[in-house]
Amino acid sequence: xxxxxxxxxxxxxxxxxxxxxxxxxxxxxxxxxxxxxxxxxxxxxxxxxxxxxxxxxxxxxxxxxxxxxxxxxxxxxxxxxxxxxxxxxxxxxxxxxxxxxxxxxxxxxxxxxxxxxxxxxxxxxxxxxxxxxxxxxxxxxxxxxxxxxxxxxxxxxxxxxxxxxxxxxxxxxxxxxxxxxxxxxxxxxxxxxxxxxxxxxxxxxxxxxxxxxxxxxxxxxxxxxxxxxxxxxxxxxxxxxxxxxxxxxxxxxxxxxxxxxxxxxxxxxxxxxxx
Amino acid sequence: xxxxxxxxxxxxxxxxxxxxxxxxxxxxxxxxxxxxxxxxxxxxxxxxxxxxxxxxxxxxxxxxxxxxxxxxxxxxxxxxxxxxxxxxxxxxxxxxxxxxxxxxxxxxxxxxxxxxxxxxxxxxxxxxxxxxxxxxxxxxxxxxxxxxxxxxxxxxxxxxxxxxxxxxxxxxxxxxxxxxxxxxxxxxxxxxxxxxxxxxxxxxxxxxxxxxxxxxxxxxxxxxxxxxxxxxxxxxxxxxxxxxxxxxxxxxxxxxxxxxxxxxxxx
Lengths: 275, 267
Prior knowledge:
- The complex is a heterodimer.
- By secondary structure, chain A is mainly α.
- Chain A has one domain.
- Helix content of chain A is 72%, strand content 0%.
- Chain B is mainly alpha-helical.
- Chain B has one domain.
- Helix content of chain B is 73%, strand content 0%.
């Protein structure tokens, strides 16, 4: 068993270490996400200012939710893995087919490492800035808070891990459309707005109209930002929080099954370009 | 051949090239249209829940939103050459070839590509704007229409100016710096709401430093006939779009300065 998993682990480790080296990119990304976060928080503040009734998520919760979305922004399936797009265009994809590994899981693990490694430095900087420095410079109302309780913190850990697993499964589906169309433009253009809205990155999902809540909770993108963030801020607790975790696991399983099946079909029809 | 005719030739060639793949053009435009429209859902949801924001209604927001998105779509479509300047011209050394030709680099980079797929975003801005003006009655006078067109032109100029500054930076950094996205996409994101909902320091930054407020917020305030609560002098409302032109003029000066310091990567 270990012998079978070992190659995937080393693939993960290698790509993780390579991606960690892009420090300037991490810093630039962090700066961009701070800026976005501040705009989103100011818009929320303006709307909550005139709120009369009790909302399904409090202002403080929505702010922390927004910062979590920015901190873990690179964990979202924005685009396919650029390496896969490049391999498909250059024809190098044939090398990957010769490896004694399951190509699906080989790419899946690479996608996980690609996203996780970029998220670690950005999230760390974001926690320090929005969590610790903001209160010191008089932006306490806009700060990112700590988990609402020990239980929330404990449940957040598997939820965050599930984000990486879920998102990698989605990246694999985008990769597959890249394989099928030999171009990464179409899929990437359409994926971004769907992900940004349905994950809760643009606006916390509880702020959408009440009649949409059931659908929004069940759709697969909720597991990317909404469920982990609401567990963190204490908006989802007890049985509902566990249902959220279960929702993530079910979608991970379904999307991996779907991706693996489509991969087998795509590879049977694969035509290698170039010479 | 004078510059404007040459530019038209560039444009014609670019359009012909993109029309070689009509299906791709249609699909990319459609996904741009749907994509940006989906993002408007977020604004709609906020109004559905809260009703208003600091006294503004959704119809008024739609007017702000439409104007800034139309400006940005135009800018994004024509400034492609500057947008990809780092990776496609500096890194590859292709900029050397542009410098050898007896035409200005600005003209050649503007002529690099006219991105037609931005039509989707443009159409989306127009649709939201049209919905907005149906909900908020505006008594259109000739002066109003002129101000609106000036605001859009000024806005496009401003966004192109930002992209030019980003390209100038790439002369030194070689790779493009995505930090400029905070001002382009981030600016659009901020300016789709009236600026008076923000904190003072942020508002002042968007009016006096990077004058997105001058090409989106101030003219629209005047069109909607609302009292401005930011507290700029009244004459500024009418001439504010000119600040977009001023910004691009400054950007072009900085660009010239940058080009003089250009050192080829040698590849």
